[in-house]
Amino acid sequence: MPRSRGGGRPVDEIGTLLASTLRLATPLILCALAGCVSERAGVIDLGLEGKMLLCAFAAGAMGAISGSFALALLAAVAVGVALSMLHGYACVSHRGDQVVMGVAITMTAAGLTVVLGLAWFKLGGQTPPVSDAVRLDPLLADAAKALAGVPLLGALAQAFLGHNALVYAAFLLAGAVWWLLYRTRFGLRLRAAGENPAMVDAAGVSVIGLRYRALAINGVLAALAGAYLVLALNSSFSPNMTAGRGYMALAAMIFGKWHPLGALAACLLFGFLDAASIRLQGTMLPALLGGGEVPVQAIQALPYVLTVVLLAGFIGRARAPKALGLPHVKER
Predict the structure, then answer these.
(1) Do 253 and 46 touch, CB atoms closer than 8 A?
(2) How far apart are CA 224 and CA 169, in angstroms?
(3) Which of 101, 145, 185, 216 has a CA that sits 20 to 30 A from residue 138's CA?
(4) 151-165, pLDDT tens digit by residue?
């Protein structure tokens, strides 16, 4: 049987690649769901990158100081909801420019995390590594090990078992957000606030209240995405560790046509490319293409190139909510 570059069987390499895809797609899924909820209500959120970053810092700082997973997660959620409420106060209550506010949140978070990190920890903007008690433990890891030697089933177990709780929660939350938006009265009203807020207003329902509630959900989901970066992927916060994931999540949301399940599929595609780019580093080009080693920078750029291609190819075809980005003025 042919061997892969890593020396294992091809089917095992596929299992490893799928496992990496799920882990890397998780923060994108959570962030894209946050964007779906707020933008379905009519509020553009370009601040997802900044929310993720500041929430990751909050989780890393509180986790390092307290040694408590619960406090670290609570700090991240508090910061995420506070930023969403700030966004709502500026753009929903006072009809500010939603795009400018989102960019301002991201720029502020990028600078504030470094300043606070330097002031509090003196580690060049990083936080100290959190202890193992704060990090998320893998679930069903023993089952994955028990099935490791079974042909095909072992690869499937490696791909889908042994992840932490937030990985599985991201997929459950995608279904929950779909159910909330498309199977509940609240979801119907929330989507109407993004399509025809005047009609919602005429029905006696507060458009501003709906948008604030959507932003609160948005803040919780963005906080989970940011906390995942520190409590699962890495052991500490580092400056700009989101690395554009917030913008990739927005691209996935647009590619998925503002639908939670469509965004989920797009995030899995981005996660797969990210995982593949890591495994392709140091590989050789085929002789027909000139040979030589693939530059690391070219491989690392693959997910971002796809983001640009998808936005260029689909942003004109995907129909955004009609009232997206438009401030609502209550009729008297």
Answers:
(1) no
(2) 10
(3) 216
(4) 777 777 777 888 899
